[in-house]
Amino acid sequence: MRREEISFQIFKAGTSDFKALSEVQSKSMNVAYPSVIPEGRFNPEVVAPEKLEREISSLYEELGISGAILKAQVSDRIVGICVYGDDAHVEQADIGYIQRIFVDPDFWRIGIGEALLETALRSLRESGFRRASLHILESNLLAKQFYEKRGWQFDSVYQVMPYGAQLRYTKSL
C-alpha cells in the first residue's frame, strides 16, 4: 500500500490502549529526539515503553472532564497519540492544553498528527476553551514548523530545562 493510500481513524483511547500508545511515543521519541536534545543528554531508557505506559496511565487519571487521550489507528494498529485537557501551567480557565502528540515514524507526513491536533482542538473549543497552548523544545525545528504552519505563535514564555529551552506556543480557538 502506498503512503497516500493509507487511511486512519481517530478515537478516544482507553486503558487497554496504554501499552500500544507508549510504544508509539517511545518509537517516535527515539527517532526524533536524538537530533533535538543536546548531544549526550538523550537517554533512550527514559522513554522506554514501560516507563511511558506508567506516565500515560497517570495522565489518564488526571485529565478531568475536558481532557482525553486520543489514538490514531490504521486498521487495528495504534499509530498515534494525543493528550489534551486543561492547561495547568496558566491560571486562566479558558486556556486548553495540548500535552503531547506523537506519531509512529512509519506513518509520518500523511496527516495523522494534524488530524489528532484538529480533533483535540475541536474538543477543547466545544468544552468552552477560547485559547490553547502547548510547549515545544526550542531545538525541535520540525515541531515548530508543524505548529507555526497551523497558526500557533510563540508567546514569549519559555522555561529553561536541562535538555534545552521549552517554548510556549498559543493559538486562538
Q: What is the number of strand segments?
A: 7
Structural class: alpha+beta
Give the CATH class: Alpha Beta
Helix share bin: 25-40%
Query: What's the gyration radius in Å?
Result: 15 Å
Number of distinct helices:
4
Give the overall form.
globular
> Would you tell me the overall average pLDDT?
91
Can you put this structure into words, describing what you see?
With 173 residues, the protein is an alpha+beta fold. The chain has a single domain, classed as Gcn5-related N-acetyltransferase (GNAT) (Aminopeptidase). The protein is 31% helix and 32% strand. The protein has 4 helices and 7 strands. The protein has helices at 18-32, 49-62, 112-126, 141-149; strands at 9-12, 68-74, 77-86, 95-103, 131-137, 153-161, 164-172. It has a 7-stranded mixed beta sheet with strand order 1-2-3-4-5-7-6. Strand 6 and strand 7 (164-172) form a beta hairpin. Helix 1 packs across helix 2 (49-62). The chain is globular, with a radius of gyration of 15 Å. The termini are far apart.
Structure described in brief:
With about 170 residues, the protein is an alpha+beta fold.
Helix and strand layout, with pairings?
Blueprint lengths: L8 E4 L5 H15 L16 H14 L5 E7 L2 E10 L8 E9 L8 H15 L4 E7 L3 H9 L3 E9 L2 E9 L1
Parallel strand pairs: 4-5
Antiparallel strand pairs: 1-2, 2-3, 3-4, 5-7, 6-7
Main traits of this protein?
173 residues, alpha+beta, Aminopeptidase, seven-stranded mixed sheet, 31% helix, 32% strand
